[in-house]
Amino acid sequence: MNILLLGSGGREHAFAWKIVQSPKCTQLFVAPGNAGTAAIATNLSIGVSDFDKIKSAILNHQIDLVVVGPEEPLVKGLVDYLASEESTRSIPVVGPSKLGATLEGSKDFSKRFMQRHQIPTAAYETFDANQLEQGLAYLEKQSLPIVLKADGLAAGKGVLICQTLEEAKDSLKEMLLDQKFGEASAKVVVEEFLTGIELSVFVATDGKSYKILPEAKDYKRIGEGDTGLNTGGMGAVSPVIFADKDFMDKVEEQIVRPTVAGLAAEDIPYKGFLFIGLMNKNGDPYVIEYNVRMGDPETEAVLPRIESDFVDLLWAIATENLKDYELEISPDYATTVVMVSGGYPGSYQKGFVISLPSDEENTTIFHAGTGRNETGDLTNQGGRVLAITGRGKDLRESLQRTFSTVEKISWKDHYYRKDIGQDILKLIK
């Protein structure tokens, strides 16, 4: 079949890499893609939220399956748009409806959904600018630290962990009155701070059935030892040692099953991926957030562990045949280290030529913010530039392969964290 994949990051390169391995894929088009996807597929110069051009591409290239990578077009209603157009309504799409995507598009919506379906999560209240005084009074009664979340999409930057009451009050004012995160913080969720170990659980669902994909742990902060500013993600490890069978059984029983059942009960169309950010608190799972797509860079560690045909999985999701799909997962480890432009997540310079090694055994280099200059050289064009994933029989072997490749890659001012996976290695010891 001809497949159209939307997105331009490391997640989408990982999707493309997995899709083209399937004999079911005749041609793969990626819009807009990056330098990595250009090497294995046909890039189309179309923005992920340009719905009319996406529809034209589907018709022009006789697309049989659409796969949506990032959250933005989902939250804006791409799936509903394609379903409403006579020329595209019969084309299967991997991605939830606009209402389903509100699980990520609105923190308040997702928290209320969890409450309705008795899904364990942190205690919270939501406030808008007209409720600022109530919000400040609420903060005075809470224990510290306290979490403030912009209700809407804020490119991964809308979450603040405040250590003092003064900081929390100032931040709430900045978010509601000064629009610190723009429209995203028109409402703010004030949430109990959960202690424990974070992990990401990924679920494929066709709205009726579900399959739990490999779990992962990601590393969000720019500095080693989880210090400094939050980023889109600096690395990931899969599997996760503290997500044993007992814990994952609780996740399925208390979170995954009621989430999928809740979507069905509320008649919310959902055919796609669900990323559940979790806290393992003394062996019990609590939902931190829902995302309505695969994570990045977790995808680059999760997909290499899926051994069954990936296109079959995508097709089963989009055509509501997931119950018949046999998911096969490798027991091997996959570890991902993200290489970023110097200065990220603040300002950084683009256009530096990247030096890559030749193919490395059991290691894959996924492109994110990359492009080609006028002479055809590979250059950095974004903050997160490359995601390097090594595979091995155990965590130590996969990390050695990952870092061995990372050390052979260079461009001016590049940066990466050298401590990815080291905390889990200590747990294994």
UniProtKB/TrEMBL annotation:
Identification of the protein by name: Phosphoribosylamine--glycine ligase
Q: Kindly give the PROSITE patterns that the UniProt entry links to this protein.
A: ATP_GRASP
List keywords of the entry alphabetically: ATP-binding, Ligase, Nucleotide-binding, Purine biosynthesis
Molecular-function GO terms, alphabetical: ATP binding; metal ion binding; phosphoribosylamine-glycine ligase activity
Residue ranges the record marks as coiled coil:
none
Q: In which pathway does it act?
A: Purine metabolism; IMP biosynthesis via de novo pathway; N(1)-(5-phospho-D-ribosyl)glycinamide from 5-phospho-alpha-D-ribose 1-diphosphate: step 2/2
Q: Which reaction does it catalyse?
A: 5-phospho-beta-D-ribosylamine + glycine + ATP = N(1)-(5-phospho-beta-D-ribosyl)glycinamide + ADP + phosphate + H(+)
Membership in a protein family: Belongs to the GARS family.
Q: What is the superkingdom listed in this entry's lineage? A: Bacteria
Task: Name the Enzyme Commission number(s) assigned to this protein.
Answer: 6.3.4.13
